[in-house]
Task: structure prediction
Amino acid sequence: MKCGIVGLPNVGKSTLFNCLSSAKAQAANYPFCTIEPNVGQVTVPDYRLERLAQLVNPQKIQAANVEIVDIAGLVRGASTGEGLGNQFLGNIRETNAIIHVLRCFENENITHVEGSIDPLRDKETIDIELQLKDLETVEKRLEKAKKMAKSGEKEAKLNVETLERLCAFLMESKNVRGFDRNDREGKLLKEMQLLTDKPVLYLCNVEEGAAREGNNHVERVRLMAAKENAGCLHIAVSTESDIAELETYEEKQLFLEELGLKDAGVNRVIRAAYNLLQLQTYFTAGAKEVRAWTIRRDFTAPQAAGVIHTDFENGFIRAEVISFSDYDQYGSENAVKEAGKMRVEGKEYIVQDGDVMHFRFNV
Result:
């Protein structure tokens, strides 16, 4: 599961990526500095993992990770190949969700490709390029469906109707995320991997003085995001870069306190990306290791077990489950058992975020 960072050139994408990831992307004050996408495994901050480690005192701690992709800046005409557009749009297609970085700060020393600061205009520029590429994809699929419908194939006839409606929708400059669909149509859209159908988080890059409250640009983006039912965050990416360079946790916390912040902006971005990808965490806790495991929402207990090893899923018998809140309250597995708070769950159990689990299985 990958989350792609997109936006115009020089809005702070690569600097953000460097803050998020141990991988270092080149960041420079000119367009197309990033050409090949940079990929980084980013640790998901989770206080629950730290708390379990305090209680269990394991030999090893393993956090959950999410994959972040830094995609080169898009420009007007990207849908027709302008500015290496085809390559960049192909990189976006391979991701599962989008963090759309919008420049919401003034700085005459950093070039803006449009010559002025207007995050809603910038957002529209990216949207139009993605919509045009989606329209091209849908029109090709429609042409194929019409040929199949002529032979009398019922499914193809239904697809023609859906695709014609989708073409009209895109031609109104709308993102596919807002397209109403039934289950059959949902499967069709999923097959096409449309760029504007991917869930999106709008990230406003602000100056240091706006790191806490935001600014007028951020307010405009928030209103827009609310209409789209999309997430919106603001962070001072340049300041986060300075914080990332500090060596100790104490130094970083002191810097954050001076800014009036309780948590680093990058931590909020990582958690938001995790949610955007519809991921959640369950834990295993023992003397050798306390570990956070990443699963999709609505995974059953056997599916969750399969993330550890396919044998766990294939030979699944049952899961012993403790909610994190109970583990936190009672302080140990034995105390939880004595309080009657450990549950035994079967194959139909839907794993909840924060469950602490032990699987029983046959090899």
Notes: DSSP finds 14 helices and twelve strands in the chain. The two ends are 28 Å apart (CA to CA).
